[in-house]
Write a structure and sequence with these properties.
The relative contact order is 0.09. With 135 residues, the chain is mainly alpha-helical. The radius of gyration is 26 Å and the shape is elongated. 73% of the residues lie in helices and 0% in strands. The protein starts with a helix and ends with a helix. The protein has helices at 3-13, 18-24, 31-37, 44-53, 59-64, 78-134. The protein folds into 2 domains: 1-76, 434 Repressor (Amino-terminal Domain) (Orthogonal Bundle); 78-135. The model has no long low-confidence stretch (mean pLDDT 87).
């Protein structure tokens, strides 16, 4: 998992909207969503702003995935964070699996469209050939 995905996990855990997050750390509108979609990297200047505005978020965890999401000195029940992290990872795997299945289904549909087009072509030429024979 990349740092941008861990930041998204934190935002979801804290119920922070991406727009509010962007505004708070002074990012342009849509920057975070674009980086997340492309699984982009997060620069040190952005990490510093995140650390300044979201002190409970463990920056080492954001960077490496090691340790815990929420720094323990801030009052939070670690079990809740761990449970959320686990559920988030499971749901992410399910989503990835569904995206792969969708891609496979799209390939099957395209193949079937090609077969239908081929049958229509053959039928059209067979009808034309029969028409030529009767004339």
């Amino acid at each position: 998992m990349k740092p941008i995905e861990r930041i998204a996990m934190y935002l979801q855990f804290k119920s922070i909207k991406p727009h509010a997050f962007e505004k708070k750390i002074e990012l342009s509108n849509g920057y975070f969503a674009k980086q997340l979609k492309n699984k982009g990297s997060v620069g040190s200047d952005i990490l510093i702003k995140i650390h300044e505005h979201y002190a409970e978020l463990n920056i080492l965890w954001v960077l490496t995935g090691e340790g815990v999401m929420i720094i323990e000195s801030v009052e939070t029940e670690q079990g809740t964070v761990d449970e959320f992290t686990y559920k988030y990872q499971v749901e992410s795997m399910k989503l990835k699996s569904l995206e792969e299945d969708l891609e496979k289904m799209n390939t099957v549909v395209k193949d079937k469209d090609k077969i239908i087009t081929l049958y229509e072509f053959m039928l059209h030429h067979q009808t034309a050939a029969n028409s030529d024979l009767t004339n």
